[in-house]
Amino acid sequence: MLVGVPKEVKVHEYRVGMTPASAREVINHGHEVLMETGAGLGIGATDQDYKDNGATIADTAEDVFARADMIVKVKEPQAGERALLRPGQILFTYLHLAPDPEQTKDLVDSGAICVAYETVTDANGGLPLLAPMSQVAGRMSIQAGAHCLEKAQGGSGTLIAGVPGVAPAKVVIIGGGVVGENAAYMAIGLGADVSVLDRNVDTMRALVVRFGNSVKTLYSTALTIEEEVLRADLVIGGVLVAGAAAPKLVSRDLVSRMKSGSVLVDVAIDQGGCFETSKATTHADPTYVVDDVVHYCVANMPGGVARTSTYALNNVTLPFILAIADKGVNQALLDDPHLLEGLNVYRGKVTYKAVAEDLGYDFADPKSALAA
């Protein structure tokens, strides 16, 4: 199989679908890897690094898309990239389709086979290809929030850690999953006053076991969200419903009543965001202000630390890339029910139920679609 890796074109996206080491592994399995020139520069990997590991370099993305059997990316394909997809071509990347009807339509119309990192599962019900980026984004959310709290950035001028005699910032984290746990880890390390809201008692219990009295856990209800958000200096939105649009847990009215200069960081923005006032931003222009509340809603946060993110992502995507290349996509999907959960669009059919429901498509059972 010829595996193609184009350069990412989303604004300030420096990650790359495959590292030189991953390319070498795929080639060692008897396949070919075609890299777009400069695709790895954002992580410090040159074209020569890829050549030294057996890859071929293409001059343009058009060449990569035209020749490759499988396209491996990081971010969802942009409009120009979607126009290059062809029927039966495999696309393996993050997609986040539920809040993106235009992308979904283009992928359906392309006839491509689209497998989304974010809905591949594991034996424990986790999302193993999303988890490392959620770890990165959770940790970055506190860094970003701390910066936004500075007065020059529109914040209240509050230092997260405080100093002796001055209270630290109150950090409220909505969602205690992978994002929330990693945000808590960073916030606690900086000395913040940290609360985590969740509805899963086992999740809250695990947070207490890990962090002890350094974290306060609260069962998430409309009332507890309101009370905590109104007292917060920094709110992290880390809620995820796999494959579906994120629920809006902080209303526009509640934002209007927050403290002046407080900060919202919406890590759920890839799935539409969990604050009603959220809209996607970029690393080039990451924030905006609504009712004196700073919003940080960068849709590709881990792209800001591209080297760490790319290597963490490749650690979990490589086995699936190899399985698809070695077996062919249909057999790989049929052999692995967890990979099958990643199938979102198959030859013109929407095969992920939450996406179909959110966007009004007929749902095609993935096994039936493969059999047809």
**Backbone shape:** globular
Helix percent reads 25-40%
Overall structural domain count: 2
CATH architectural arrangement of the largest domain: 3-Layer(aba) Sandwich
Class based on secondary structure composition and strand pairing: alpha/beta
Any low-confidence stretches, pLDDT <50, length ≥5? none
Strand neighbour order, sheet with most strands: 3-2-1-4-5-6-14-15
Q: What is the CA-CA span between the terminal residues?
A: 23 Å
**Could you tell me the number of beta strands?**
15
The CATH topology of the largest domain is Rossmann fold
**What is the CATH H-level superfamily of the largest domain?**
NAD(P)-binding Rossmann-like Domain
Strand content: 15-25%
The largest pleated sheet is described as:
8 strands, mixed
CATH top level class name of the largest domain: Alpha Beta
Query: What radius of gyration results from the CA coordinates?
Result: 21 Å
Helices and strands, in N-to-C order?
EHEHEHEHEHEHEHEHEHEHEEEHHHEEHH
